[in-house]
Amino acid sequence: MSSLKEIYKTYIQAINDRNWALVISLVHPTVIWNQKPYPAEKYVTLMTRATDPAPDLKFHIDILVADDTGDEQMVSARLLIKGTPEKEFLGFRPTGESVEVVEHVFYRFVEGKIKEVKTVIDIEGLRDQMVYDKSF
Q: Which spans of this chain does the record mark as coiled coil (predicted)?
């Protein structure tokens, strides 16, 4: 059996490779994302909303903590997300410049698969990079 860290690293690499079939195999049939349940395929659609506007977008694991010692299997991560938006994203128009944002995310695993995701992303930092007037 793989460790939670190994499973999570495989999951992040699958996202970076846009290997959505592998992502689906690593999550439960229903994933709870920020308290709302989604079928696995719809959960992947949420990810493609972020990856499609920036084809070079990659997730980099900055901090990774896993705990599988108790009744609940948990993974916590601080991710650096880097890419160059080519299309509008969250209402922000692309500038042609790369952006980097931080995401803090917590995962609950059940039977070795991701069941629940709680995430906070630095949208303010993204906004500052995409709309900030750098001419000052």
A: none
Q: Answer yes or no: is pLDDT of 116 > 60.
A: yes
Between the two ends of the chain, the Cα-to-Cα distance in Å is: 54
pLDDT category at 10 given cuts 50, 70, 90 is very high
pLDDT, tens digit (0-9, with 9 covering 90-100), for 70-79 = 778 999 999 9
The first and second tokens of residue 24, run together, are 């689906």
Distance of CA 126 to the CA centre of its chain: 15
The answer as to CATH 3.20.20.70 being correct for domain 4-131 is: no
What is the pLDDT, as a whole number, of residue 7? 96
Scanning 3-111, the segments in alpha helix (DSSP H) are 4-16, 20-26, 40-51
Residue 24 makes CB contacts below 8 A (sequence gap 6+) with 40, 41, 44
The whole-angstrom separation of Cα 16 and Cα 22 is 11
Q: How far, in Å, CA of 97 to CA of 86, rounded?
A: 9
Amino acid identity of residue 134, one-letter, is: K
Q: What single letter denotes the amino acid at residue 42?
A: K
Describe the chain by its helix, strand, coil percentages, rounded to 5. 30, 40, 30
CA-wise closest residue to 114 among 35, 52, 23: 23
